[in-house]
Design brief:
The complex is a heterodimer of chains A (497) and B (243). Chain A is of the alpha+beta class and 497 residues long. Chain A contains 14 helices and 20 strands. Chain A has a 7-stranded antiparallel sheet, with no helix packed on it. Chain A has a 4-stranded antiparallel sheet with strand order 5-6-1-7. In chain A, a hairpin with a 4-residue loop joins strand 9 and strand 10. Chain A is elongated and about 110 Å long. Chain A starts with a strand and ends with a strand. Chain B is globular. In chain B, a hairpin with a 2-residue loop joins strand 8 and strand 9. Chain B is an alpha/beta fold. Chain B has a domain of 157 residues: Rossmann fold (3-Layer(aba) Sandwich). The chains are: A alpha+beta (497), B alpha/beta (243). Chains A and B meet through helix 14, strand 12, strand 14, strand 17 and strand 18 of A and helix 2, helix 3, strand 3, helix 4 and strand 6 of B.
Chain lengths: 497, 243
């Protein structure tokens, strides 16, 4: 049975403006907004409403009514951001929070209330917490979002409507409670239909003819004949676990215990479904409304509690509990199939398929970033392009590594300029100077000409020489360009062992 | 008579090593043979499951040291093994590894952003039994840090190699300290050109073994010890020659 909560922030804008100035709560206080060349009241607080001021009234009229009215400029964009922040804060009560602009929220509370010890306590907790934050709220819970909205906005005493009783709760409410268009509401009142119970049992064909399809839809949504889709502010991950805390958690040990419990819950579920985590996020909802989060990624699907815990452990210290964390959430946005028998087979085999190797790669890459490389051969002569990064640990080489050419074991990331004395064109050099040191060349091999791959890059060819100096060190030198061009340059590119 | 005595002495010596906590090499990896250099090692086998240190401050020496190390690792890795090479910036040219008997795609390169992370990454890698060998290029290593690494391999039996690029050497807890320098290559029949790589391999320190200096050539995927041209610092006659 689905259950929904509607929260109505009765004086959202004025409450928010009163947060830094508690004294505004007591005096009549309105917000103004220019509209068609005059100033209109866009929000009024409780004291102002009691004095007969309402939204949409011209500011001049209100001033006539109450000369000492306090007025501030409205900031509708900011108020919408405030509502969004409140929605994020409310995620501690349920993962499924949707906005109900301009001043309300919908919560899909299905299966959540028992964590607070019942629906009454759940709604009470919500009301108390939001009131403590300085907002006037009306909270109602019912079987449909429409009914919850109606009760929150129009019932004398909003609260929990027991499951299956939402139609009874709707009956005494005015037609406005169905979220109808103003013209329709006006027509209903003109016809003397001041309560829902007066028209809910009328023939549907007659209602449709008079008030249109939209009216029936709204009625069906409230009654539960039609499903009302709610768009959550944050998409709910299909794999997630929640752990609300009775007391806010401030210690590192407490956070560790929470993480372990959540991992155990998640991994148990994943094991049963033969799935493994590829990416996971651990979130801590703090008392002050902020969310602290750390995320990890694995190179191979895993449901090992100990391994995942180790990955999180490195970052655990970055969580700032401040005044305490009320709710821990563990989400797995990326989940892949993980068959248990494969693990058994590979565990003994070793090599690149070893699970423990994947775990090591995860641990390293979660600390230092994606800086672990494996290389595969590429069919290119140009040395810099003769290999490429592998995309995974398991990727196989398409071609063989070349062994017919001599390549140095260490290559400079960028070839370095050297000064060279070479006797005859295309002969190996006699000596070269690198970083101020002169190396006399005793033995040499070459040249090995490597042409540019013109379809990739323009430029001159390289003539490579393997040379050995009088100390027995071996180098890889090249000349860029033809000897007779006069524009050639010599470079040191690597060291042979 | 003498042979029997020599055997008994060798047996006793290995017993002493065992009692001192020296573990014999693991079954799958023990068959690495370095020819004449083997005599320098305890039990005449290259110590696997330990951390070795290779000092090489200059870039030229680094190439020589990497050549010798990759040759060693090829013997340890065989066909199945996987190794990790940790440095702040990769200078190893993967296609060249094949010439030293390693399939380059069985080597993972870890490029750490800071020197500090290199030690951490090396320790993590040494703890993982999935690996055969770990190489770390480090600027400097303290005694405490090297002890941590040694403790890490004792569980996992991974063989670690530190390429120490520090100019000034300090005491470390590594099982051995090597210095490899290039020697002029030799071509058969004094043909022109560059021949097979040749190094002067100095074993400066080895726990429970005898240091020495050798001239080593890399020939057809194996080490060939060309000459043992200098006396080891501690002057013990090898036991096998006693008879």
């Amino acid at each position: 049975m689905a259950r929904f909560v509607s929260i109505w922030f009765r004086y959202l804008a004025t409450d928010w403006f009163s947060l830094p100035h508690p004294e505004y709560k007591k005096i009549p206080f309105v917000l103004r907004q220019p509209s068609h060349g005059r100033l209109i009241i866009s929000a009024a607080n409780a004291a102002a409403v009691r004095s007969g001021i309402s939204c949409g009234m011209a500011l001049a009229d209100a001033r006539a009514l109450l000369p000492d009215l306090h007025v501030l400029d409205d900031e509708p964009d900011k108020i919408q951001r405030v509502l969004y922040k409140l929605a994020e804060w409310c995620m501690r009560f349920t993962p499924w929070v949707a906005l109900d602009p301009p001043d309300g929220l919908f919560l899909d509370a299905t299966g959540c209330a028992h964590l607070w010890g019942g629906e009454e306590k759940y709604v009470q907790e919500m009301t108390n917490k939001l009131t403590a934050r300085g907002y006037t709220v009306r909270v109602a819970m019912a079987d449909t979002p429409g009914a919850a909205w109606a009760v929150a906005h129009y019932a004398k005493n909003p609260g929990v409507v027991p499951a299956g009783h939402h139609i009874e709760a709707l009956l005494p409410l005015p037609p406005e409670a169905l979220r109808l268009e103003p013209q329709v509401v006006e027509r209903l009142h003109k016809l003397g239909l001041h309560h829902i119970k007066q028209f809910i049992h009328l023939p549907r064909a007659a209602l449709r003819k008079r008030f249109g399809v939209g009216f029936l839809q709204q009625l069906d949504k409230a009654v539960g004949q039609e499903r009302e889709p709610l768009q959550p502010i944050q998409p709910v991950e299909p794999y997630h676990e929640r752990l609300p805390c009775l007391e806010p958690i401030v210690t590192a040990t407490g956070i560790e215990i929470a993480l372990k419990q959540l991992l155990e819950m998640l991994c148990l579920r994943l094991q049963q479904e033969q799935k493994g985590v590829r990416a996971a996020v651990f979130k801590g909802h703090r008392v002050d409304g902020k969310v602290e989060q750390i995320s990890i990624a694995t190179s191979r699907a895993s449901h090992q509690v100990s391994h995942l815990f180790k990955l999180f452990e490195i970052r655990l210290a970055t969580i700032e509990p401040a005044l305490g964390i009320e709710l821990f959430v563990l989400e797995a946005p990326k989940v892949e199939p993980h068959l248990p028998q494969q693990e058994k087979m590979w565990e003994a085999g070793g090599g690149l398929d070893d699970v423990r190797l994947a775990e090591l790669v995860d641990r390293l890459s979660n600390k230092i970033g994606e800086r672990i490389y494996r290389y595969l051969p590429e069919e290119h002569h140009w040395p810099e392009r003769s290999f490429r990064e592998a995309t995974s640990l398991q990727e196989e080489a398409m071609t063989e590594w070349r062994t017919d050419v001599h390549r140095p074991l260490h290559v400079l990331p960028v070839p370095e300029r050297i000064e060279v004395t070479a006797p005859i064109p295309d002969y190996p050099p006699l000596l070269f100077r690198h970083k101020g040191r002169v190396h006399t060349i005793v033995k040499a091999d070459g040249p090995e000409r490597i042409e540019q791959e013109w379809w990739r890059q323009q430029g001159q060819h390289r003539d490579y020489y393997r040379v050995e100096d009088d100390e027995g060190n071996r180098y890889w030198l090249f000349r860029l360009g033809h000897y007779h061009d006069q524009t050639f340059q010599w470079f040191l590119h690597g060291y042979f062992s | 008579m003498f042979v029997a005595k020599a055997e008994m002495l060798a047996q006793l010596q290995s017993d002493i090593l065992r009692l001192q906590g020296f573990k014999p090499a693991g079954s799958g990896l023990g068959a690495l043979s370095l020819g004449a250099i083997d005599a320098a090692f305890p039990n005449r086998t290259f110590p696997t499951g330990a951390v070795h240190e290779v000092v090489s401050p200059a870039s030229e020496d680094l190439a020589a040291a990497s050549g010798f190390l990759t040759g060693l690792m090829a013997g340890l890795m065989r066909s199945k093994g996987v190794a990790v090479w940790i440095s702040t910036r990769r200078t190893v040219f993967p296609p060249a590894l094949k010439a030293f008997g390693i399939k380059p795609d069985r080597l993972l390169f870890v490029e750490v952003p800071r020197e500090r992370d290199a030690l951490w990454a090396m320790e993590e890698a040494l703890k993982s039994p999935a690996l055969t060998a770990v190489v770390g290029e480090l600027r400097d290593i303290s005694f405490t840090a090297s002890r941590r690494l040694q403790l890490a391999v004792e569980q996992s039996q991974v063989t670690g190699f530190i390429i120490n690029r520090a100019a000034k050497l300090t005491t470390t807890a590594c099982v051995s300290r090597w210095r490899i320098t290039s020697l002029p290559s030799e071509t058969p029949d004094a043909l022109p050109g560059i021949g097979l790589p040749q190094w002067r391999v100095e074993l400066l320190r080895i726990r429970n073994g005898r240091p020495g200096v050798w001239q080593v050539q890399w020939q057809k995927n194996r080490f060939v010890v060309a000459a043992h041209n200098e006396q080891p610092t501690t002057n013990h006659e090898p036991l096998s020659q006693a008879g």
